[in-house]
Design brief:
Length: about 350
């Protein structure tokens, strides 16, 4: 196995790395790269990195925004639980995402006990006093925390706590999307968050199977520029492997304790991804039925799968179009979000709109 390592001198300045990128771009021809993670999209937009790229190097956003791919059904399910008088906890961005009819924020305005938390353990603390359901979303990054909270509840015998799991296996989804041809790129800027849990070795299997170069990247502007420079060199040399720029955090094998907790609590099931559809074995189902809110409250909602009329978020999260190519862009904005990509701070549409307007003001 090839040793994973950063191949660009980290002591170079941003200007020097950009010079390297421009020199390498002359050798590669047209290149399409996907920044898979929503946090990378956020960093790229905030720092104007797209505008710094040579004309033949194009950066597209990917499906790595958990809020953006959370389907209507999961919102509808937790709303039904809130209507029963149960306290529902959620991360901030998610409360503004509409289900088939309304959002958690709208239910809160109608008197339901909907609370924003910053950690699943806040939800566990609330559950010590009253019946609480936490709607949990995210990939391998946040799933270990949910798993640990469930294990802690079980250990302490806290019966008021359960979770509606919207967690998804990111690597399984990327494998399926690459296999289907829905995602076609010359290289991937791969997520440092997920890799810190899974390890870089898991991504190497993806590169080998689909013959695509990947670089696991940190989230500082310099990290991303180094990553792009590494990818261009790999593309030129036809190196369809995975390299690790985020060496200060990501190891080859990942976080064994986190992986163990996930395995103990979750089992794979088919899952809907908003804007994409059903992807086999990408959902994380809770094994312990007493902590599975769907089982505990016998939640039954219609399996409705649709996007708002005119919304092209599905194409945005697959990197098929840029946010501004959606006909609703502008009318759909953070104050009046139509699609999920305009709700989350990691969403491509949100970041494109906010940074476009902040640049105009400056």
């Amino acid at each position: 196995m090839e040793k994973v390592e950063r191949t660009v001198n980290p002591d170079k300045t941003a200007a020097e790395i950009l010079k390297d990128i421009k020199a390498k771009a002359k050798k590669t021809g047209k290149v399409k790269l996907m920044e898979v993670c929503g946090s990378h999209t956020q960093a790229i937009e905030q720092n104007g990195l797209r505008s710094l790229m040579p004309a033949n190097i194009e950066l597209f956003s990917g499906p790595g925004c958990p809020v953006c791919v959370t389907p209507q059904k999961e919102i509808d399910e937790v709303i039904e639980i809130a209507k029963k008088g149960v306290t529902v906890t959620s991360f901030g961005d998610l409360v503004r995402v509409k289900g088939s009819k309304e959002s958690l924020l709208e239910r809160k305005a109608k008197g339901d006990d909907v609370r924003i938390v910053y950690s699943v353990f806040e939800a566990l603390e609330i559950a010590r006093k009253k019946e609480t359901v936490h709607i949990a979303i995210g990939f391998e990054t946040t799933a270990p925390g949910t798993a640990q909270a469930i294990l802690q509840a079980k250990k302490e015998g806290i019966e008021n706590f359960s979770v509606l799991s919207g967690h998804k296996y990111f690597l399984t989804a990327m494998d399926a999307l690459l296999q289907s041809g829905d995602i076609t790129f010359d290289g991937l800027i791969s997520p440092g968050h997920v890799s810190a849990i899974t390890g870089s070795k898991a991504f190497e299997k993806l590169s080998a199977k689909h013959s695509i170069p990947q670089v696991i990247s940190g989230f500082e502007p310099l990290d991303i520029l180094i990553t792009i420079s590494m990818l261009l060199e790999m593309i030129e040399k036809k190196e369809n492997t995975t390299k690790n720029e985020y060496v200060r955090l990501v190891s080859e094998k990942g976080n064994s304790k986190a992986l163990k907790a996930m395995k103990e609590v979750f089992t794979p099931e088919n899952a809907l991804w908003r804007g994409i559809g059903m992807i086999k074995n990408t959902g994380m189902k809770i094994k312990q039925k007493e902590y599975d809110a769907r089982k505990k409250y016998d939640v039954q909602v219609e399996e409705e799968y649709s996007m708002p009329k005119g919304c092209r978020c599905g194409e945005v999260v697959k990197g098929q179009i840029h946010s501004q190519q959606c006909p609703l862009f502008g009318f759909c904005n953070p104050e009046n979000p139509v699609g999920p990509c305009m709700v989350s701070v990691e969403g491509s549409c949100y970041n494109t709109f906010v940074n476009k307007n902040s640049h105009h003001k400056n």
